[in-house]
Structures are given as structure tokens and as C-alpha cells.
Amino acid sequence: MSEYGYIPEAPEQSFGNNKGIFTPKDIYDLTRADKYTNYGQLELIETQIHSSDVAQVDFTNIKADIYDVHFMTLNNIVSSSDAGLDCRLSDDNGTTFESGSYDYDIQFVQTSGTSNGETRSTSGNAFTRLGALGANANEQGNGYMYFYNLGDSTKYSFATHQSSSWNFNAHLVMYFGSLVYHQTVSMNALRVFPTAGSLTDFEISLYGIKSYE
Amino acid sequence: MGLVQVATNTVTSAVASVTLTGIDSDDVYMVTIVGASPSSGVDEIRTRFTASSTPQTTANYDYANKFFRASAAFINDSNTNLTYTRGTGNIDNAFEGGNGIFYLYNFNNASEYSFMTIESVTFGFSEGRGYAGGTVYTVAEAHNGVQFLPSTGNIDSGTFTLYRVV
């Protein structure tokens, strides 16, 4: 009701431009319609923490219909064997994971040894070199990934990553890479796994980066 | 880390460029690009900084990037005194494959240069490609946003979003 006693026309509501006094139901409805100003566009989807040793960690509720950019943090990743850390995508909610059609080019630098440089492929079997893992004291991988376009069936799926690991040769190794799954498929699940052995410790979080129209 | 959306632009019909503004604090800002596609076959997405919402076109952009290629050796790609900086590698418009994360530093500070880090991935010339690096605009002035544009033609698609990092 306006100060003159009439009911004004309802204003258009949108992110960053809400007007009026809102009931909890209004807020609920506007939020569901992506028209309510909720600041904080880095939204946690799920965190998985080690409770028992596993061969892989699957995220099967990635909300790819909501987010076109995902952010994953990989913290204290430890394996039972000397291994690398890889990631695969699924288009059937995690029933199977794709094992081909991955392009990547990854730079790596180590504090010991002469093996610095890059690894690349146009026919890889995973998003690879997310970290270098081991079972001895201090050996662990840590890093992050950004994923793009996972849920869009008309576009390829893309990712970038960076990691810092104390590897199975007891020195630091850094990976930084660009990755493409070159098939136009809508993805709905992610798998993180060691290339050998099982994961004996980890904390992995998946976030969505929200974008309002 | 938290993100607060400042501006966004989803391209659904061809435009010559996309400009995002709204930087008005000394915070670090972040831009996401998803599904960017040029109109002209295969092209890169370039970037300029805006002062009072006007893209700056003087030859003061320097960049130093690692250019990743899935089918050939990487390249150290650097240049100075250009009228733009590189944001992505080549994008094949058949796959709408321009994507990246860009962090913006010192934009609101009129007494310092403005800096940007680049982390982008594309698909072009039948291979995955990436850029990782940094850019500086060597003029001490305040900037309130960024502009994205191809080297020729238009941008056909893509979502460009500016966030404040809090």
C-alpha cells in the first residue's frame, strides 16, 4: 500500500535490484527464480573427507544445470602407493566415467632432478597430473581445478588446474595445466582417483560459481 | 574466499565487444568467461581495461604468458606496448570454447599500474589450448572494468561475469 492508499504496480525484481518488503515466502520464491539478491556467489556444493580408504572420490550431484563454472579444492591428498592424481567426467550420473577424448597440456617444475617441462596429449584417458601422491611421511598433493561448461551438451567441457605436491621422490613438484574433453556431452558427475593404490587421506570440496542474469 | 557478483553479460547475438564495469573498491576482482565464441572462424579474445568505463587503447599493455598446446610444445608468449592484451588462445567458433578465470589487481588505485592474471583454456585448430600468465597496463590510473573483444569481427556467444573477491 502506498502512502496515498493505493496498491502500486509490483516492481520488476532481479539480482541486485530488489524493491519492497519481503516475506519469507517471497524470498524463497524469488531465490528459486534467481531474482533475489543473495551475495556470495561461490557456493559450496559438497565436501568429501576421508573416513576410510577408497579407490576414488565421486561427486554425483554437481548441479551442472545451475553452474557453468565449478571450482574444486584438493587438500591433503594421500595415497597408498606412489601415484598421480587424475579426474574423469561422467554423463550418466556416475555409473560410468569417460576414459578417452581428453586433451591436455601440463607444465611441471620440480625442485630436484632434471625432469621439468610439459606433458601433453590429444587423446588422453583423463584430466591428469592434478597432483603427485605417495604413502611416506609428508607425501601429498594439494591444488585446485576450475571446470567450465560441464552441463552444456552443445559445448566441450574444459578445465584448468594447478597443484603443489610433495611427491614420492620426496621433493616438491608443481603442475599447471589446461584440459579439454573434446566431445559435446552434458556432464553430471566427476571422479577424482589415484593412478595406483587407494586414497588414504583427502579433503575435496566442490563449489559452484553462480552467475545471475 | 567469497565472491560477490558485480556485473554480467551473456552474449546471445553478435556484439563487437563486451564491457564489464563496476570496480569501485581496492579489493581484488575476478572475471569468469564461459563459452566465448568469435564470429570469424578461429580467433582469440583480447582484453582492455576501462577508465571511467572507456576502454583504454594506448600502447601500454605488456603481457607474459605460457601458451599451452595439446599437440605441440608450449610457447613463452610475451610482448610489450600493445594496445590490448591477450585473454585467451585461439577459439574455434564451432565449439564455443573460450573459457577462463582472470584476477584483477590495483584497478581502483590511481597511483599504481593495474595488473591481471590469466588462466584460460580453449579449443582451436583441432587441439586444446591454454594461457597462463600475467598482464600489466603501464599507466598509473584508476580502472573500473574490463573489455573483451576479438581481433576481428564479433563475439557470437559467451557469458562474462565480474565478481568482487571478499
Brief summary:
With 213 residues, chain A is mainly beta.
Write the layout of secondary structure elements.
The complex is a heterodimer of chains A (213) and B (166).
Chain A: H1 24-32, E1 42-49, E2 57-59, E3 69-79, E4 83-90, E5 102-110, E6 117-124, E7 127-133, E8 140-148, E9 157-166, E10 172-181, E11 189-194, E12 199-209
Antiparallel strand pairs in A: 1-12, 2-11, 3-8, 3-12, 4-7, 4-11, 5-6, 5-10, 8-9, 9-10
Chain B: E1 3-11, E2 18-21, E3 29-38, E4 42-43, E5 45-51, E6 54-55, E7 61-69, E8 75-82, E9 85-86, E10 91-92, E11 98-105, E12 114-124, E13 127-137, E14 145-150, E15 155-165
Antiparallel strand pairs in B: 1-15, 2-14, 3-11, 3-15, 4-10, 5-6, 5-9, 5-14, 7-8, 7-13, 11-12, 12-13
Percentage of residues in strands of chain A: over 45%
| Class by SSE composition of chain A | mainly beta
In order across it, which strands form the biggest sheet of chain A? 1-12-3-8-9-10-5-6
Poorly predicted segments of chain A: none
Structural overview:
In chain A, the strands form two sheets. Chain A has an eight-stranded antiparallel sheet with strand order 1-12-3-8-9-10-5-6, with no helix packed on it. Chain A has a four-stranded antiparallel sheet with strand order 2-11-4-7, with no helix packed on it. The mean pLDDT of chain A is 92. With 213 residues, chain A is mostly beta strands. Chain A has one helix at residues 24-32, and strands spanning 42-49, 57-59, 69-79, 83-90, 102-110, 117-124, 127-133, 140-148, 157-166, 172-181, 189-194, 199-209. Chain A has two domains: 1-39, no CATH class; 42-209, Jelly Rolls (Sandwich), CATH 2.60.120. Chain A is elongated and about 80 Å long. Chain A has one helix and twelve strands. In chain A, strand 5 and strand 6 (117-124) form a beta hairpin. By secondary structure, chain B is mainly beta. The model of chain B has no long low-confidence stretch (mean pLDDT 94). Chain A binds chain B through residues 15-16, 39-42, 68-69, 103-107, 118, 120-122, 146, 148-149, 152, 154-156, 158-160, 162, 176-180, 182, 184, 209-213, and chain B through 1-5, 8, 10, 32, 34-35, 66, 68-74, 95-97, 99-101, 119-123, 126-132, 159, 161, 163.
